[in-house]
Amino acid sequence: MQPLQQTKAIPGENLGLGTSLGVYDSSLTTLIGDILRPNCEAVCKLATSHSTALRTMASELINEITVDLEARLLRVDRRNHNSSDSLDTWAMDIVSWTGHAIPAASADSPHNSDPILLKDGDIVECFEAFLLFVAHHAKSYFNNQIAAGLLKPEDCRLILPILCMDNEPESYDFYGVDHNYPNTSESGMFPLDSSVESHTTPAPLHVVAVVEMGESHEELFHEMKRLAVRTARVYSNQHNRRFVWGLTVAGSYIHAYVFGPDVLWTSNEINMASASGRQEFTSLLVDWSLCSVDWLGFDPSIRYAFDDNVGGPYLEIDIHEVDESATQVKNSTYYSKRCVGAVTNLVGCHARYFAASTSLESMDNPSVLIRDVWLPPESDPGGDKSSILDVLYAALEGTGDLKGRFSQIASAGSVYLFQGNTFVKDTTTTAFPGLAAASQHISGSQFRHHRRTVTEWAVNMISAADDPNKVIIAIADAMTAHNAAYAKCKILHGNISDRAIQFQETADGVSGVLGEFDYASFVGDSGTAKIELPDQMLFQSIRRLENAKAPCTRLDDWESLLYVICVLGAIGFSQKERDEFAADISGYRSVKSWNTHRARDASREKCTQMSKIYFASFIYSNVRQKQLRRLAMDIHKALFLHEGCTGELWCKNALDELTLRDTFENEVVAELLSVVGRHKQEALVELGTKGSISTVVAKGSADPSRKRNRNAVPTTTPMTTRSKAKRSAPEV
Question: Where is the stretch described as Disordered (predicted)?
Answer without folding.
Answer: 698-732
